[in-house]
Amino acid sequence: MSAPKRYTITAALPYTNGPIHIGHLAGVYVPADIYARYLRLKGKDVAYISGSDEHGVAIPMRAKKEGVSPQNIIDKYHTIIKKSFEDFGISFDNYSRTSAEIHHKTASDFFVKMYNEGDFVEEVTAQLYDAEADQFLADRFVVGTCPKCGFEESYGDQCENCGTSHNATDLINPKSVITGNVPTVKETKHWFLPLDKHEDFLRKWILEGHKKDWKPNVYGQVKSWVDDGLRPRAVTRDLDWGIPVPVEGAEGKVLYVWFDAPIGYISSTKEWAAREGKNWEDYWKKDDTKLVHFIGKDNIVFHCIIFPSMLKAHGDYILPDNVPANEFLNLEGNKLSTSKNWAVWLHEYLEDFPNQQDVLRYTLTANAPESKDNDFTWKDFQAKNNNELVAIFGNFINRVVVLTNKYYSGIVPTPNDFTEVDEDVLAAVKEFPNVIGKSVERYRFREASQELMNLARLGNKYLADEEPWKVIKVDEERVQTIMYVALQISAALAVVAEPFLPFTSTKLKGILNLEASISWDDISDKNVLIEAAHQINKGELLFSKIEDKTIDAQLEKLQATKLANEQENKVVEPQKETVEFDDFTKLDIRIGTILEAEKVAKTKKLLKLKVDVGIDTRTIVSGIAESFSPQDIIGQQVSVLVNLAPRKIRGVESQGMILMTDTPDGKLAFVEPEKAVKNGQAVS
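The line above is the sequence of Methionine--tRNA ligase; the predicted structure tokens follow.
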């Protein structure tokens, strides 16, 4: 669409069974926010819409696990998610929730219109059923082996390993999540969206119409689905949590969450329009509106096949102009996992890094998984902050503001004659909004963020080359021009940084005292962004260096998570072969006290111990050096197998074995008496 009159931008509805993590931000919310903020700076009419997805089987599953009601779960996480977005600067025009009355009515009306026009197929089908729980197993209540990739923990609707969408009955070796039983098959009635009837439309609309302007990863996944042959998809479920199916004969059934959730974009727009005095239909039904869905790659099939088929069948709605889905973001080389707590949670980041929202925004944008999976590491986060935001962007602004206050008491100097260098720099500044804008409009946000940093680099190079701190000693008039040019660059940075670094932009505008609004296009169209004789304010640091200890604390937190996961997943060793009582009585285990401890040379795990076991004092070599420091275990009472045959370990004769066990964090722990006892006391 060449010149849309308005933009409807949707960001995937986050699911309210947990908080937001950096994978969600990198995949959906940061790029969508950059796009929306950019368009607003261009003076466009924008509706940036999202809301909490509060239906589906995962909500009652979480509620059952926590022993609360589903309403408690959605209220808890809706509050956390909404506040996290607000604190992080995600500039939604409206953030709603699918439990809202307006959404229930909108989704119900949508279904009824399609139902009345014969857009669904009603079928009695075989569904998985848990006899012990006396209920049909909705998608997330059943796991099994993915029929495509062989992943053994695939859900009934989608495999989290390969991203394939399927039906629960397609799973190999399915089992009920509720009871662990193998489910039976039982007949039930449902309504299906016949995607096969929409295949010709999808081929023409996407495979022909968007071959050149949609991202290859999105286009490729859609093409694979269509080429594989589309089949009817159920739009109802046997479940008691969700929007009741609004037709006769559908008692005990709700709308499938992937039918009702995307309609949440429409109901959220209605909510916003009513509040702002606008006509919501303009943003969903007018051909001069550009609709863009921001999602992760696991939602491509729903936003590019199922939802467009629904919109087309309904008949009144426009179709998305683009669906710039991102790939996945990994964390420290491993796949993000909410169930395993392998994530950086947004609300925790905001607590650990106060007033540093833009550092995370910039890092996630610079490393955005736009065309392939990418990795977030804390060391790279630190480097992006220290080596780019602090050393390039922050350094330039700090020098400009400090020198302006030092030389001119904060008053923008009047320039004198411009040199060729000055004119080239000012001309280059005018090009940046167009270059950055083109990248944003093509959904290349990584590229756009680096062009932003190139503008700051231009400023740094200009100051370094012109050296006003030296020239001031011999040519004060020349320095006036240098600082005037540097301040124009600073003002341009304050504007073009806003989509990427909104908190920094606000702070910089405050420092430069830019009360009058400067639009995106003003940078290219105007010769002066900040007038001579304008008073700027005192400086403050835009970014602060992040020290190693701060990063180490985050890495330690992740390491603790990894160890906890390993312990949770650790398989308990099976019982050993049965022994006779007489065999057990041959073991002589005594309580002893460690008198001395030292590391065994050239080893990581071994300590050489002197232990008083009551009957004598003996030397024991034990592999506990990675869990204990020698000085910390002097005086420790331990259980010792004293009649173990001696053997040499690294040249030291060991005369017994200390009994140990594992702790949840993967460390070793002594098997010791509850209270101090006399050395030599037997354990029986």
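Note on the example: The radius of gyration is 32 Å. Residues 378-408 form the longest helix (31 residues).
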